[in-house]
Write a structure and sequence with these properties.
CATH architecture: 3-Layer(aba) Sandwich
CATH class: Alpha Beta
Bound molecules: S-adenosylmethionine
Shape: globular
Number of strands: 12
Low-confidence stretches: none
Radius of gyration: 19 Å
Helix content: 25-40%
Distance between the termini: 56 Å
Number of helices: 9
Largest sheet: 9 strands, mixed
CATH superfamily: Vaccinia Virus protein VP39
Strand content: 15-25%
Length: about 325
């Protein structure tokens, strides 16, 4: 416990120069407070909203509602009917980096998709002509498929392969690739959940190495002029800003893109346009988000849907 506290204090010193901010951050993790539940409307909102809502943040898309504390949207019959998807406001923040992408966006690839929140957000916001949701862990596929089915996310397909498979088979073919990376999950503590070992340097290092491997493979399937969104739900710079800096050094054809609507959330740990939400601000448990663009000129490679090893597909609706 003592070691854990020391590591948390060390992280807080790294993240904040301001003492007050540092203390509030530690307090948010050690004495978690509830955050407002949140929903993403997949279908048209009913004329009269069945939920009581909070005032929207200026950057929040119209299809998102932040609900009053105590609302239990998952228990409402509209949920089962696929009207909305329940997600944390931190996930909304991370996914809202996509609002900086000019449309149209035709092919969207979600590399780390289960249970599906960012896929549903991208589909709703960008209306792509194909959404590919990949989840490498077999036992997480069920919830991903059931969410895409329930919310009628089409045209979409689900795959279950290591990111390196796609780097080899479908390079330079997608307009947007999302990497909502597996991480040490430090923000779970701000939700009162457990994240064993999340501050330990060995765990952070292992996680950062995995993130670098995933982002490096994911970058290779981004079409010329296409976008790569990287996000996590953890605070350590090694898994966030440092992954971005490593990626840009390794793949200099990419540049980080500004998201004007999130400028109030600029990370103070880098000069790159990277954005962070912290739990002490009271909106969500915390997230990191950044958008890269592939500046290469050239033709997007045709994506042969047949070569994708789909475990589930729903692609009848649109051409
Ligand atoms: N994007 C999801 C959403 O919004 O609902 C949450 C994704 S979660 C933060 C990270 C996901 O990455 C997990 O589903 C996990 O199984 C997956 N993952 C774990 N190891 C991976 C790897 N080596 N390559 C790709 N994805 C991995």
């Amino acid at each position: 416990m003592k070691n854990y506290s020391n590591l948390l204090l060390k992280l807080s010193r790294h993240l904040f120069t301001n003492l007050d901010e540092r203390e509030k951050f530690v307090e948010a993790l050690t004495h978690p407070q509830p955050f407002n539940p949140c929903i993403l409307w997949c279908k048209e909102k009913p004329e009269s909203n069945p939920f009581s809502t909070e005032v929207a943040t200026p950057w929040q898309p119209k299809f998102i509602d932040r609900l009053s504390l105590g609302e239990k949207p998952g228990q409402h019959s509209l949920h089962e009917q696929g009207y909305f998807y329940c997600l944390d406001f931190s996930s909304v923040f991370a996914a809202s980096i996509l609002l900086a992408i000019p449309q149209p966006v035709n092919k969207v690839f979600d590399m780390c998709a289960a249970p599906g929140g960012k896929s549903v957000f991208a589909w709703k916001n960008l209306q792509p002509d194909l959404l590919i949701a990949n989840e490498v862990i077999g036992k997480r596929l069920g919830m991903l498929i059931s969410n895409l089915k329930r919310c009628q996310i089409e045209p979409s397909l689900v795959a279950s392969k290591d990111p390196s498979f796609f780097a080899d088979t479908i390079p330079l073919s997608c307009d947007l690739v999302m990497v909502d990376a597996p991480c040490t999950g430090q923000s779970l503590l701000a939700k009162g959940e457990k994240a064993p070992g999340c501050f330990h340097p060995t765990a952070i290092n292992k996680s950062a190495n995995r993130q670098k491997r995933i982002i490096a493979n994911s970058g290779q399937i981004v079409a010329p002029q296409g976008y790569l969104a990287y996000m996590t739900c953890t605070y350590s710079p090694e898994e966030n800003e440092e992954v971005c800096e490593w990626f840009l050094q390794r793949f200099p054809q990419f540049k980080a893109v500004e998201a004007k609507h999130l400028e109030g959330y600029q990370s103070n740990l880098t000069n790159l346009p990277c954005y962070r939400m912290f739990p002490q601000d009271g909106l969500g448990a915390g997230a990191f988000t950044v958008l890269f663009q592939n500046t290469e000129e050239g033709e997007e490679k045709v994506l042969e849907v047949e070569v994708l090893p789909a475990v589930w597909r729903n692609i009848n609706c649109r051409d």
